[in-house]
Design brief:
CATH architecture of the largest domain: Orthogonal Bundle
CATH topology of the largest domain: Vanadium-containing Chloroperoxidase, domain 2
Order of helices and strands: HHHHHHHHEHHEHHEHHEEHH
Number of strands: 5
Number of helices: 16
Strand content: 5-15%
Shape: globular
Number of domains: 3
Length: about 350
């Protein structure tokens, strides 16, 4: 347990490197690899290679659209390892892994991120390469460059290490599919679609998991990313049921084009564009389409909308303390809703 705590503390320090600079972080003690220097990268490209890279970046900037900005801000929400740890947690929770197995999965990803970050800092201060926007001031960036050298990119290193471990864990998930009814929920699905290893596995799963009695749920805020992925055709064909959340930009040309590719017409786009957020949802399937209105009351929302980590922790504690029969009443009381006691049958009281 002490080793795990030190790992998390070390990961926290490594994740804050962009702000702290830490030129000696490449010499920090590692968990798996021999040292940061053991994985020192080859020297960065020469002047000609750098010029070619900068031109490629300028081409990317010219093509930057709203979907790209969404991804940029998504990954910049925290330290380089933040989203990957979040993804690992989502994957572990969605599969219903026991607490020890969840801890093991998170520990493996955390160790990979930490060691790779230490190795990245060893290479950074060995080569002291400037950021592209420092070499060419005409190159515009959405995010301000960090104070540390640019090569290698800590986001790229973290992604490579975390994705490798998650790919292993992804493969191990198959052993959990025993034929019992299972729901595999992949939140922020474009994270999986954006990586060739995950995309290939998902393509295979979409074709075969139905036979194993497994339903796959993709949740994404960026339809464009799903439709532009390498497995777009499989996604469209293998996901016959789609639920669209309200989107007041659905009628804009770029968004409308994506919805149209999914078979929606102008009237359906109007319904999605004018739907009430967090209440109405547009359901599309081969059996029919319908705008669903979930006009839930306060009690229903207390149960159905309890998705925050603190909500889940409270639910777990109350079930452990009062059992399933006493959970509902004590849960609502904990949310200052004792007025709802009359909704419960007397035998379901304490």
């Amino acid at each position: 347990m002490h080793k795990f705590m030190w790992l998390i503390i070390g990961l926290s320090l490594a994740c804050n490197l962009p702000a702290q600079v830490e030129p000696n972080a490449g010499q920090w003690k590692t968990w798996v690899i021999a040292s940061g220097k053991a994985l020192r990268l080859p020297a960065p490209p020469d002047a000609d290679g750098t010029a070619a890279e900068i031109q490629w970046l300028k081409d990317c900037v010219a093509k930057r659209n709203q979907a790209a900005l969404v991804q940029i801000h998504f990954w910049d929400a925290g330290a380089p390892g933040y989203r990957w740890m979040q993804l690992a947690q989502q994957l572990a929770v969605s599969e219903g892994l026991s607490t020890p197995l969840q801890t093991r999965a998170l520990s493996l990803v955390a160790a990979a991120i930490y060691d790779s970050t230490v190795a990245a800092w060893d290479s950074k201060y060995a080569y002291m390469r400037q950021h592209p926007s420092e070499i060419d001031a005409t190159l515009s960036t959405v995010i301000k460059p960090t104070a540390s050298p640019s090569y290698p990119s800590e986001h790229a290193v973290t992604a490579g290490a975390a994705a490798t471990v998650l790919a292993y864990l992804f493969h191990r998930l198959e052993s959990q599919f025993t034929g019992a009814p299972t729901l595999l929920i992949l939140d922020e699905a474009w994270l999986f679609l954006d990586h060739p290893i995950f995309a290939a596995q998902l393509r295979e799963w979409l074709k075969t998991l139905r036979k194993a009695n497994v339903g796959v749920v993709f949740a994404t805020q960026a339809i464009d990313d799903a439709l532009e992925s390498a497995i777009a055709t499989t996604l469209v064909e293998a996901c016959p049921v789609r639920i669209f959340l309200p989107n007041d930009r659905a009628l804009e040309p770029q968004s409308a084009a994506a919805y149209t590719r999914l078979g929606l017409n102008q009237r359906q786009l109007q319904l999605i564009g004018h739907a009430v957020p967090r209440r109405q949802y547009y359901y599309q399937s081969r059996e029919g389409n319908r705008l669903i209105d979930l006009d839930l009351g306060e009690v229903a929302l207390a149960f159905c909308a309890a998705s925050r980590p603190e909500d889940r922790a409270r639910i777990k504690d109350l079930v452990a303390a009062h059992g399933p029969s006493g959970f509902g009443r004590t849960y609502l009381r904990a949310r200052d809703m004792a007025w709802a006691d009359d909704l419960f049958l007397p035998e379901a009281a304490e």
